[in-house]
Known about the structure:
The longest helix has 15 residues. This protein starts with 6 loop residues before the first helix and ends with a strand. By secondary structure, the protein is an alpha/beta fold. It folds into two domains: 81 residues, no CATH class; 64 residues, no CATH class. It contains five helices and seven strands; from the N terminus they run αββαβαβαβαββ.
Amino acid sequence: MADIVNRVAQSKLLTIDLEDYYPEGERVILDIKDWLYEGIILREKDFRDFVANHPWEQYQDAYVAMHCSTDAIVPGWAFMLITTKLQPYAKQVVLGDLELLETVLFRSVIDTLDISLFKDKPVIIKGCSNKPVPENAYIWATQKLQGVAKSVMYGEACSSVPLYKKK
């Protein structure tokens, strides 16, 4: 009886798992609605008082998504002012929700990713993850790998979907 051979393990196929590049750290949503008069009106003096007296150190090494959950019209300078207070503490600050925050974080990850290991190799971008990897990260990884890889696939080695093959 012949031995069972794991052809996947013996192949030159490389797998990139974007979950491995997940930026560790606390994610925080900073909702400014409570800093507004009746949750909808920004009174500059009161707002500046909230900003001046807020305990900013609680955001140390956190990733912060700022937003206002009410239909208030908030001038751009308000979020800029908050950013000046967050800057010494937070790792990253965005205006938006957690999905946007994750997207911004992964854009940075993909932009700085060293892909020289994948040059002229068949590559699978692993599809399943337990951490919130945004869909855009897969698109950006595909674009970046397409420039160097022999081929790009999506999924798992046993059931991959071909996406690109160098001619």
